[in-house]
Amino acid sequence: MTSHDQSYRAGEAKGRTEEKTNQMIGNIEDKAQAAKEKAQQAAQTAKDKTSQTAQAAKEKTQQTAQAAKDKTQQTTQATKEKAQDTTGRAKEKGSEMGQSTKETAQSGKDNSAGFLQQTGEKVKGMAQGATDAVKQTFGMANDDKDKDHFPTNRH
């Protein structure tokens, strides 16, 4: 009976060994599956974060571009209004000078030629001043000639 007992014990040992082996394999498979899932989650998280960062950068770029566009439009409008204002003032000044010249010429008819000459020079100087002011406003002035008379605000 010894051989039968040995055979029985060998079978039991083999069964326990197989069971332990199967348990270890199951544990290894579970751990491998958990590691795989964890790696997939990490990859998905990184992908999501990258996508969010790219979207945020895109939005920031669009906002910056829109802000620049808005600023350009505001500057253009302000420049246009300034030019219209300056043109209007130049027209007014020219009209005033024209009226003044007309009045001066009318009253000067009765005066001597020397007086007319003197008045003409004054009117000429005023007209030149107005011309220079308009040229300065529109950036057409001679820099060397007008530097001392009109400060420039060119940027």
UniProtKB/TrEMBL annotation:
<protein>
    <submittedName>
        <fullName>Late embryogenesis abundant protein 2</fullName>
    </submittedName>
</protein>
<feature type="compositionally biased region" description="Basic and acidic residues">
    <location>
        <begin position="142"/>
        <end position="155"/>
    </location>
</feature>
<feature type="region of interest" description="Disordered">
    <location>
        <begin position="1"/>
        <end position="155"/>
    </location>
</feature>
<feature type="compositionally biased region" description="Basic and acidic residues">
    <location>
        <begin position="11"/>
        <end position="21"/>
    </location>
</feature>
<dbReference type="InterPro" id="IPR039624">
    <property type="entry name" value="LEA1/2/D7/KIN2"/>
</dbReference>
<feature type="compositionally biased region" description="Basic and acidic residues">
    <location>
        <begin position="28"/>
        <end position="39"/>
    </location>
</feature>
<feature type="compositionally biased region" description="Low complexity">
    <location>
        <begin position="40"/>
        <end position="78"/>
    </location>
</feature>
<feature type="compositionally biased region" description="Polar residues">
    <location>
        <begin position="97"/>
        <end position="120"/>
    </location>
</feature>
<feature type="compositionally biased region" description="Basic and acidic residues">
    <location>
        <begin position="79"/>
        <end position="95"/>
    </location>
</feature>
